[in-house]
Design a protein that fits this description.
Blueprint lengths: L1 H13 L2 E2 L5 E2 L21 E2 L10 H5 L3 E2 L11 H5 L1 H4 L7 E3 L5 E6 L4 H20 L8 E3 L13 H10 L4 H14 L7 E6 L16 E6 L22 H13 L4 E4 L20 H11 L1
Helix pairs in contact: 5-7
């Protein structure tokens, strides 16, 4: 907060500008007179940084008032297959695993309504938390992540999961129920544990009525409800109709989780997209940030 106060004072009241590690503007004045200042500011975002956040020795980042919560609080990972724990449980507990229309079971995806699967995920969360604590990882690593593999989440086709999706009007409902139960179970012994997951492709919109755990977070990924049209990664969130699901997902998850939402925003520089635009997303960044802020 001291860094933010000093550099905020320099920028907001003395017109200094910090452009890069090597370029900054400091006006030259013979006299400096200031009126009484009463300036208390609250950041619009709990974490302010790009890709990997801001390290304590990143002076430019501090000058730009980046930082906030530990960045690892925002991350999720394509790791549901790890928490499926099929090596130890697939043969003993096939009902824990996602049922497919042909009657087979996936060993890398879980049945969202299975209480046994949720308890096993909770056990693995506690194990992972213990490993990180022993390794003296930063405080932010109390945020663990369990999320779908890259692409659409392979939902279970059992009757209970199918009815849950229909009732909640969201394909995120089974995964959310599973992780919410697992988090509540893990918190019986580790009450400070928090959990993040992706809202991505078919899980882009939240459930309607399931009550979220107060320490459940969602990382909304720029995508679409259909992988055939995965969103427009070269134009603004509000200006392109291809981004409508992403736009709605940001607003809906933020309201649903009372602001415990982060953004994983793919852009034109991603290989395979950049050739379509000379300055991908450069001119719509400000409007995108305002939209994220306005959504809370």
């Amino acid at each position: 907060s001291l860094y933010y106060g000093v550099f905020g004072f320099l920028e907001d009241h003395l017109d200094c500008r910090f452009y890069s590690r090597n370029e900054e503007y400091v006006p030259s004045r013979r006299d400096l007179a200031l009126p009484p200042i009463d300036d208390a500011q609250k950041p619009a975002f709990q974490v302010r940084g790009a890709v990997w956040g801001v390290k304590p020795d990143d002076i430019l980042g501090l000058k730009l008032r980046a930082g906030g919560l530990p960045f690892c609080s925002l991350l999720a990972g394509h790791n549901i297959s790890t928490f499926a724990d099929a090596k130890n449980n697939f043969e003993k507990h096939p009902d824990w695993y996602a049922l497919r229309p042909d009657g087979s079971r996936l060993d890398w995806s879980l049945c969202g309504t299975s209480e046994g699967a949720a308890k096993n995920v909770a056990r693995l969360l506690v194990e992972e938390y213990g490993k990180r604590k022993l390794a003296e990882r930063p405080e932010g690593d109390r945020f663990l992540s369990v999320a779908q593999m890259d692409g659409n989440y392979a939902n279970c086709c059992c009757k209970a999961c199918t009815e849950l999706i229909e009732r909640e009007e969201s394909e995120a409902a089974p995964l959310f129920l599973l992780l919410n139960r697992a988090l509540e179970e893990a918190q019986k012994t580790h009450p400070d544990l928090a959990l993040s997951t992706y809202a991505y492709f078919n899980t882009l919109l939240p459930p309607k009525t399931l009550k979220p755990n107060p320490k459940f977070w969602a990382c909304v990924v720029s995508s679409s409800l259909s992988q055939n049209q995965a969103g427009d990664q070269l134009n603004g969130i509000l200006e392109s109709s291809s981004n409508r699901h992403y736009r709605d997902g940001i607003k809906a998850w933020t309201a649903y989780l009372d602001g415990r939402t982060s953004i994983y925003h793919w852009e034109g520089p991603d290989p395979g997209n950049s050739e379509h635009s000379e300055w991908p997303n450069l001119f719509c960044h400000s409007e995108d940030y305002r939209y994220w802020r306005d959504c809370g």
